[in-house]
Automatic annotation (TrEMBL):
Localization annotation: Cell membrane
Gene Ontology molecular function, alphabetical: ATP binding; phosphorelay sensor kinase activity
SUPFAM superfamilies documented for this protein: ATPase domain of HSP90 chaperone/DNA topoisomerase II/histidine kinase (SSF55874), HAMP domain-like (SSF158472)
Name this polypeptide is given: Two-component system sensor histidine kinase YesM
Cellular-component GO terms for this entry: plasma membrane
PANTHER family xrefs: SENSOR HISTIDINE KINASE YPDA, SENSOR PROTEIN KINASE HPTS
Segments forming domain HAMP: 337-389
Matching InterPro entries: Bact_2-comp_sensor_kinase, dCache_1, HAMP_dom, HATPase_C_sf, HATPase_dom, Sig_transdc_His_kin_internal
Length: 623
């Protein structure tokens, strides 16, 4: 609606009201918005950095906890060596005997009891250890569990990749990512296995592996660490080993899987830096290495979580800015309106004066500059009204008297009677065609100088044109034709006298006459957009673009016509155009379109005049 209002009133963009409003906005609102933008940006950066520091500190604590956890289980796996000393010093000797025994040979009850005591001892060292399994060099398996689970006797560790990976790790601690307890019947628990190979201590040059110890640890210890590690709803945290397997994550679906996104960015997470932040397009990756386990704690901190706090403050600031902006705009509108409304009223009264209403006055309600302008306007209009009453009307009456005097000098009735005598003489002498031409001329003279009014009906103007074409047909032997396409309801509408005839005459003389062959003039009419439009089309020689441009320039100028070496041209069209504009306003007049060798169309645009007073005895058709 605002855009439509501006289109209907283009002067609005130049109004004082708009200028004052824009000035208020420029001085008050724009600085407020700029300050708010800078403040929100600085606050956002502060929150971002603060969140990064807090998250990095949390991951640092988590990394320390996990490092301690791995160190504890690493020490537990070494109990095999300390358990081998003192009163239990027979364990290493037992395992050496088992290595030297033939495969499948049974150990003594005492040896078996000793191994079972050892695995039970290891089981009781930590609350999170669920299973302890020891596999000697001949694949004899000793196990214990905190729950009553049935060991799968058909499970062959030797064919499993896990055992091969443990054996290949040498003397180092080997950690297997979360996996099901497949060696227990119908067990669905997932555990992390801490494993270590046990070497004989008697031969340092070529030590043999006497067995492998496996500690199955539940995930509760990780859960306790992660419970304190909450970066946000959309910010998962994971512990990943050097092969990309997820040791633990607060997204349970990721546990035990190999994470492709880690493999793609592994070089960034496993560099020389033990901790750091990697910025991605929509998230921050905060990492902390756990060297003892070859793990990396990674938190994917979503920007959405980072700026959740920022958005809350930003919304509050936005509401405050909106309220201040609304108050500022309302204040500017009120101030501008208080100044602009009196000016608009003054402009409205000025438009009334422009239209000829000299009774327009402005109420003076103050003594400021606006009040002084209103008082000066009232005084000016009053003096103008007095001047017109004394001088202008007197001049109009004088000119009307002069015009009437000129008309009386022509003595039209003398001309009519003289032409009638000449016509009858021509008929008596057998020149009927000449008599008909004289009659047509007499009718045109009567129409041209006999009517004492400016407005005629379209029917009268067309009748005069038909008389004109009687002369044209005789002169050019029916080379030029006339066609009328005027609805009957238009014939009684009023038009300016002699507004159509000059256009038709111009079409005949300058359009069809220079043409080789016959031609036609078509007159049509229609009511369009509350205006009467009469079109005069000829299929003559038309005009070149340069000629058409000169004609348009002439119609828009103050000149009476186009002066050439042969005399004045285009006087008729210019005269009709100026008369239409002077009588009806600048929105009316002639429009011309033309194309060479095609023809020309001239449109007369004028208001709809429904009532025209008929002068008795002045019907052209009856003459």
């Amino acid at each position: 609606m605002a855009g439509m209002r501006l289109q209907r009133n283009p002067l609005f963009i130049k109004s004082i009201f708009l200028k004052f409003t824009l000035a208020f906005i420029a001085v008050g609102l724009i600085p407020l918005l700029c300050f708010s933008y800078i403040a929100i940006g600085a606050f956002s950066r502060h929150i971002e950095q603060s969140t990064m520091d807090d998250s990095r500190q949390l991951l640092g604590f988590a990394g320390q906890s996990l490092e301690k956890m791995v160190a504890d289980y690493n020490n537990i796996t070494k109990l095999l060596y300390s358990y081998n000393s003192g009163r239990n010093g027979g364990l290493e000797k037992l395992l050496q005997t088992a290595v030297n025994a033939r495969p499948g040979a049974m150990l003594s009850f005492q040896s078996t009891q000793l191994m079972n005591d050892f695995v039970r001892y290891v089981l009781d060292t930590d609350a999170h250890i669920q299973n302890v399994i020891f596999i000697d060099a001949n694949l004899r398996t000793y196990y214990t569990s905190k729950s009553s689970k049935q060991f799968d006797s058909d499970y062959n560790f030797n064919t499993r990749d896990q055992l091969q990976a443990i054996l290949a790790s040498g003397k180092r601690l080997k950690i297997l990512p979360p996996h099901p307890e497949a060696y227990f019947v119908r067990s669905r628990n997932r555990v992390i296995t801490f494993a270590r190979n046990y070497y004989e201590l008697t031969d340092f040059n070529h030590p043999r592996i006497l067995g492998t110890l496996l500690l199955d640890v539940d995930l509760d210890g990780f859960e306790a660490v992660f419970r304190r590690l909450n970066l946000g709803e959309n910010s998962p945290v994971a512990v990943v080993d050097d092969q990309g397997y997820c040791i633990y994550s607060n997204d349970q679906r990721q546990i035990g899987l190999q994470l492709n996104w880690f493999l793609k960015k592994r070089r960034l997470f496993t560099g020389e830096e033990a901790a750091g932040i990697i910025r991605d397009r929509d998230a921050y990756f905060i990492f902390q290495q756990v060297p003892l386990g070859n793990w990396t704690v990674i938190g994917r901190l979503s920007r959405k979580d980072v700026f959740k706090r920022v958005n809350a403050v930003r919304n509050s600031i936005g509401l405050m800015i909106l309220a201040c902006s609304a108050a500022l705009v309302l204040l500017s509108l009120a101030f501008s309106k208080g100044f602009a409304v009196p000016v608009r009223k003054l402009m409205g009264q000025m438009r009334r004066v422009e239209k000829g209403d000299l009774t327009a006055r402005v109420a003076v309600r103050s003594e400021d500059e606006i009040g002084q302008l209103a008082a000066g306007f009232n005084q000016m209009v009053g003096e103008l009204q007095d001047y017109i009453g004394k001088s202008y009307l007197a001049q109009i009456k004088q000119k009307e008297a002069e015009l009437e005097a000129l008309k009386t000098q022509i003595r039209p009735h003398f001309l009519y009677n003289t032409l009638e005598v000449i016509r009858m003489c021509a008929i008596d002498n057998g020149a009927a065609t000449v008599g008909e031409m004289i009659h047509s001329l007499s009718v045109q003279l009567q129409y041209t100088i006999g009517f004492n009014r400016e407005m005629v009906t379209l029917r009268q103007e067309v009748a005069m044109i038909q008389n004109y074409f009687r002369l044209i047909k005789i002169r050019y032997e029916d080379k030029i034709g006339l066609e009328l396409n005027l609805p009957p309801e238009l014939l009684e509408l009023g038009i300016l006298k002699l507004s159509l005839q000059p256009v038709v005459e111009n079409a005949v003389l300058h359009g069809i006459k220079p043409k080789d062959g016959p031609g036609k003039v078509l007159i049509s009419g229609e009511i369009r957009d509350e205006t009467l439009t009469i079109s005069v089309f000829d299929d003559g020689v038309g005009m070149s673009p340069a000629q058409l441009a000169r004609l348009h320039e002439l119609l828009a100028s103050e000149r009476m016509g186009e002066r050439t070496a042969e005399g004045w041209k285009q006087i008729g069209l210019k005269n009709v155009h100026d008369r239409l504009r002077l009588n009806f306003g600048a929105g009316y007049g002639l429009t011309v379109a033309s194309q060479e060798r095609i023809g020309t169309v001239v449109r007369l645009v004028m208001p709809i005049i429904s009532e025209v007073t008929e002068d008795a005895g002045q019907s052209i058709a009856g003459r």
